[in-house]
Amino acid sequence: MLPLILEDVSFVVGGRAIIDRISCDLAAGPRTVILGPNGSGKSVLMRLCHGLLTPTSGRIVWGGNVDDGRPRAQAMVFQRPVMLRRSALANVTYGLALAGVPRAKRERRAREVLDAVGLMQVAARPARVLSGGEQQKLALARAWALEPEVLFLDEPTANLDPGATREVERIVDEIHASGTKIVMSTHNLGQARRLADEILFMSGGRLADHAPVEQFFAEPSTGEAASFIKGELPWS
Amino acid sequence: MIFAADGTLWGIVLLSLRVTVTAVAVATVVGLPLGAALAIRRFAGRHVLLVTLNALMGLPPVVVGLVVYLLLSRAGPLGELGLLFTPTAMVIAQAILVTPIIAGLSRQVLEDAWHEYEEQLRSLGATPTAAAATLLWDTRYSLVTVVLAGFGRAAAEVGAVIIVGGNIEGVTRVMTTAISLETSKGDLPLALGLGLILVAVVFLINAAAQVIKTAAVRRYG
Fold it and tell me: Which of A200, A212, B15, B189 is the most exposed place for a label (fewest CB within 10 A)?
């Protein structure tokens, strides 16, 4: 299914280009981190890739085939996880049911991933009364259970404390190690250094840089990227 | 009076409950899926439908009674069924009265939930039907309140059931029509007694639902 190819993709709302003519290839393997300040279009770019939004121009191509319906082998974790009013376990089996996994296999798979993210002891508890960190780990488990080829993560640690953030980063690494392509957005430089293999740097809806992580931090190709790395925020 | 109540009185109370509960059940089965469809689907004419639905929430019971009367009367299109002046006719009238209320109020509840859930459910690949079922289940405690609003409306109305039921003693006399009749006959104690029972029934059902809802919210968040 990969690579995911964006060809001149724009997303324009009310005459304003939220995403401005982005072209890039996302190949299987490396962990891609979409880096950029708030409002630079990271979330919208991911929603376009995931298929929640449709580009107003340009096209998104999966594995050489023109986008004819969203491939199923992808999942997304949002900044604020949406938990259904049922148990943690049932939240995971719900996703498996929608993905067409036979009933007999759902619970075993759900327990495997809950165990992997360290939520086995709260499996029976209502998902909505879990802490913010637990809910985000549950969202990761729900996505991981689907064994997606690509997992999109939209600032998954933006609302979490440092401990929960480390946990989430560990789980993201494990999901990557299990063979899933990671595409994650963040505005946190430290997290980008820790998790990224390659960086997509966004600024004002444009793709301002696309480079391996060492190269991006050592010699950013644009002034905007250099200022962002130095902690200057010319946008604010 | 209430404590010395005879079989007639309890017959009236039970018939009232039977008619109203059946009508609300029918209105719920029709109204909730309708509310869910309006909350989730975007289609041409949706806006017109919403305005119409909101207007129908305020339907005057006597007008509903009149229309159902015309449909069911001997010369009407459904006259052959012989339903006029039966409890079934009263159920039909109340169901017509309550369905827009349940559909309209549930649409609001479900649309709010949809704003929260939409991206997550679409990301997981939920079809509109699956999404509707999920929303209905996840908002079930709020929907209890919606159904109770419909119950209150049906239990309290007199205009529709008196026209299509005819207030026939032992057949179609319910609490509201009996209160109306006894008041006009001057038997105020009996009217008042029935009124107290009616208020008590509505009060008890709402209190029970509130207790269930509070406990559920505390437990499930």
Answer: B189
Q: Tens digit of pLDDT for each residue in B158-181?
A: 999 999 999 999 999 999 999 999
Q: How far is CA A36 from the centre of its chain?
A: 14
Does the beta-carbon distance from B125 to A98 stay under 8 Å? Answer: yes
β-strand pairing of A4-13 with A16-26: antiparallel
Quick: pLDDT tens for A84-140. 999 999 999 999 999 999 999 999 999 999 999 999 999 999 999 999 999 999 999
- B129 has a chain A CB within 8 A of its CB: no
The token duo for B213 is 């809802």
Nearest Cα residue in chain A from B128: A98
Taking the Cβ of residue B116 and every Cβ of chain A, the question of whether any pair is shorter than 8 Å is answered with yes
ipTM of predicted complex? 0.90
Most B CBs within 10 Å: which of A85, A94, A130, as the mutation test of the B interface?
A: A85
- Among residues B33, B220, B45, the alpha carbon closest in space to that of A83 is found at B220
Task: Please tell me which of the candidates B122, B130, B220 has its beta carbon nearest to residue A85.
Answer: B220
**pLDDT at residue A233 greater than cutoff 60:** no
Whether residue A3 has a cis bond before it, omega within 30° of 0: yes
Q: Record the pTM.
A: 0.87
Q: Does the pLDDT of residue A69 top 60, yes or no?
A: no
Q: What is the CATH number of domain A4-82+151-229?
A: 3.40.50.300
In whole angstroms, what is the distance from residue B174 CA to residue B151 CA?
A: 15
| Domains along the sequence of chain B with CATH | 7-220 (1.10.3720.10)
Is B123's CB within 8 Å of A50's CB? yes
